[in-house]
Structures are given as C-alpha cells and as structure tokens.
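I had to read the description of the data format several times before I understood it. Each protein is reduced to its one-letter sequence and a matching series of backbone shape codes. The format is easy to grasp once an entry is in front of the reader. For illustration, here is how one protein appears when written out as sequence plus structure tokens:
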Amino acid sequence: MKIIYKIWLESESGRAFGKGPCRLLRGIQETGSLRKAASAMGLTYKKARLVIASCERSLGFALTRRKIGGAKGGGSEVTNDAVELMKKHEAVRAEAENALAEAYTKHFGQPAEAQFYTVLSRRGGGKAME
C-alpha cells in the first residue's frame, strides 16, 4: 500500500513553487542552462521560462540570472535565494513524507510508502510539470 501526496507553496496569487520548478532549478544548477534543463524535463524553453517567471512573480524575488555570451556562450544560473528556497522546500517535503508514512502506520497498523504524486502527461500531448 502507498500513500500519495502533493505539496507546493502558495501565495495570495496562487501556486508559487513546487516540485516541478524545483526540479527545473536543479537542472539549471547541473547544466548551467535553462534550455538544457527544460529539455531534460520534456518542456519547451518557452514553457520553462514562463514557469520561472510565474514563480518569481508569486514569490517576489528572482530565481535565476542570465549569463550573457562570452567564450562559452550564455546560460543561466540559480540565485542564492533560489538555492535557499530549494533546500527548504526539499526539507519540508522529506519531513512531510516521513510524517505521512508514520501516520499511515499509526492508523492502519501496517507500514506504507509515502510517494509524491506525479502527473505523466496532459491532454493535448504536452508534458506536465511534476
């Protein structure tokens, strides 16, 4: 048996940050490129840019910085505020996962895996953010 959950941060204007944007930012950290991070997640660059911009509006601070040209070309980097946000979000998710598994065991008398809910695709063939 599994217990499935989904967690995100929400502001007055709606959803502000969750697993999908966190994965996208981790991808930027690893590749130095929003385009490469988006591609690895099955997103277009435009969709990834819109996701980041929406999160930034809701949160009130920048998540990425663009690096312009140079010998290696341009790219993106994650801001210090974004790094802190990712750490906190991942810590909350881990603690929530443990708490849900413990609550399930307490009330049902048997252990269960807590698993984050994942959407694989949406109507129209586009890939969805997790």
In short: The longest strand covers residues 14-18. The chain has four helices and six strands.
